[in-house]
C-alpha cells in the first residue's frame, strides 16, 4: 500500500510536468491555431537558461529562474513575430514542420556550447526528501505539485479577470469576431506564444531537479501530446488533468506491467482515447477555465 | 472545345487538364522528366565516381518510394501523417524476417508492402472519425509504439542491437553490386510511379482530391470521406512498406532507431521540399534529402574556425533548411503541371 502511494505521488509530480507542457501546447493551439512541435525544445532551453544564469552568471536561484522564464517567453514572442506568424492560416503541417525546424535549431544551438553538450546538470534546489507520516516524498515532487497549483490559479485569474486574458480567450473563440470587437489579434498571438514558451520553460525548470538538465530532456514533451488529446485538445484544465492522468497511469504501469510497457502506455492511451472519447475524457465539460 | 482527346461524358469532364494535354503530351512530359533524371544520373556518375553515384541513386530511389507514400497521404488526400517512418520500419522488418525465414526476396516485397499497408490502416483508424490534426496525433503515437515494440520484442527483432539482412537475391542472382542495386530500385521506382499515376487518375485518386479540397462537398457528391482517407493511409503505408523492404536489403542492417521520429520528419520534409501536390515532387525531395547531409558535411569542413566543428552545427543547419524551405518555397521544387 505504501509503495503504491509512493508511486502515485511521483506519478502525480511527473504528470504535472506533462500537464504543464500540454497546457502550453493547447494554449498556443487554441489561440493561434498553430501546432507547436518545439515545446520540448523550449523546455530544454528554459532548463539551460536557468542553469546558465545561476551557475555561470552567478545570479541567486530565484532571480535566475525568473530570468530564465522571462527570457524563454521573450524568445517565444520573438519567434512568433519573425517566423511563426507566416504559418497563420496555412495547413497544420506547415506549422508542424516550421516549429520542428526551429526546435532543431534551438537544440543545435544549445549543443554547440561544449559545456552544455557534454554533461547532465542539476539545479541546486529541492534535493532532499520530506517525510509525510510514513510516506517519504522527494521535495522536488512537492515543488512541482505546489508550483503547478499556484500557476493554475494564476492562469485562471489571468484568463478571467485581466483584460489581456479575456481578449486572449475571445481571440481563441473566434479571431474574426474578436478583431471586430477591437482586440488586437496579432498582439494576442504574440502574447499566446510568449505565455506558451514561458510555461514550457517553467516545466523545464521544475523538471530540472527530477531528471537533471540535459540536451535530450525535451523528449519528455512527446508525452504532452497524449495529455493534450485526453483533454480534448481544446481545454486548458483538461490538458493539465490529462497530464496528471498520464503520469499516474504511467507510474502504475511501471509498477505492475512488464518492463518497457511504461513507455508505450501513454501512446496506447492516446489511440484508445481517440477511438473511445474523441472529445477528450471530459467530453468538453472540463473546459470551464481557460476556454 | 473540340479537342479529340476529350470524352464527352460528365464524369470524364473533370479530366480536362489531362485530356487537353492528350496522350502525346502526356508521354512527352514523362519523356522530358526521364531525360532530366537521366542527365542528372550521368552527371553524378561523371562527377562522383560510379560506385558512389550508384549508391546514392539507390538511396534516392528508395527514399522516393517512401516519399510517394507521404505525398499520397499529405498532398493528395490532404491529411496529416507524423509517423511515416514507422511504416517504413514495418516493411523493413517484415522483409528481413521473411527473407530470413526463406521466402524469396521478390515474393517478400509485396508482403512487406502489405504489412506497411496494415500499419497505415491501424495508425489512422483511431482518428478516422475526427480527421485533421488527430491523424497527426494517432500516427505519431503509432510510430512511437512501433519503435518501442521493435526494441522490446527481442526474440523476433533482436531489439536495439538490430538485425542483419542478406543481399537482395533473385533465383541464383544476387544484387550485391551498386549497379544491380540501383537497377532494382530504379525499376521499383518506375513501377511505384506508374501505379500511383494510374491510381490518381482513377475514382480513388479523384476521391482523395475531392476530400482534400472540401470534405463536405465531397460527401455531398457521394464520396465517403472516411473510406477515402483510410484508403490513402493504406496506399501510403504500403508504398513506404515497399521502400522499407528495399532499404533493408541496401543497407544490410536495420535497427529501430533508424526509423525514429527524425526519419518521419525527414520524409515529411521530403514531400514539402519536392512539392506534395505532384508525384514528381517525391523524386526531387528525395534528391535534396539524400544530398543534404553530405552538403552539410562539406560545408562544415570548409567553414573556418573551431565553432564549425561543434556538435550542434549540423542540427542548426538542418533545422534552418527546413525553416527556409517552408518560408521561401511553400509549393516545393517541382513545378505544377
UniProtKB/TrEMBL annotation, chain A:
Entries under Pfam families matching the protein: BPD_transp_2 (PF02653)
Which Gene Ontology molecular function entries are recorded, alphabetically?
transmembrane transporter activity
Any one of the GO BP annotations: amino acid transport
Membrane-topology annotation of the record: Multi-pass membrane protein
Where does the source fall among the domains of life?
Bacteria
**Keywords of this protein's UniProt record, alphabetized?**
Amino-acid transport, Cell membrane, Membrane, Transmembrane, Transmembrane helix, Transport
Q: Which CDD domains match?
A: TM_PBP1_LivH_like
User: Transmembrane region positions?
Assistant: 6-28, 61-79, 91-110, 130-159, 191-215, 235-257, 264-281
Coiled-coil-forming residues are none
Query: Cross-referenced PANTHER family, in alphabetical order?
Result: ABC TRANSPORTER PERMEASE PROTEIN, BRANCHED-CHAIN AMINO ACID TRANSPORT SYSTEM PERMEASE PROTEIN LIVH
The protein's name? ABC transporter permease
TrEMBL record, chain B:
Ordered alphabetically, the record's keywords are: Cell membrane, Membrane, Transmembrane, Transmembrane helix
Q: Where is this region: Disordered?
A: 1-21
Gene Ontology cellular component terms for the protein in this record: plasma membrane
- Single annotated GO MF: branched-chain amino acid transmembrane transporter activity
| Stretches that traverse the bilayer | 34-54, 60-90, 97-121, 127-146, 179-200, 232-252, 311-328
The UniProt entry lists the main location of this chain as membrane
Q: A Pfam family in this protein?
A: BPD_transp_2
Q: Does the keyword Transmembrane helix apply?
A: yes
Matching entries from InterPro entries are given as: ABC_transp_permease, LivM-like
Q: Which domain of life is it from?
A: Bacteria
Q: What is this protein called?
A: ABC transporter permease
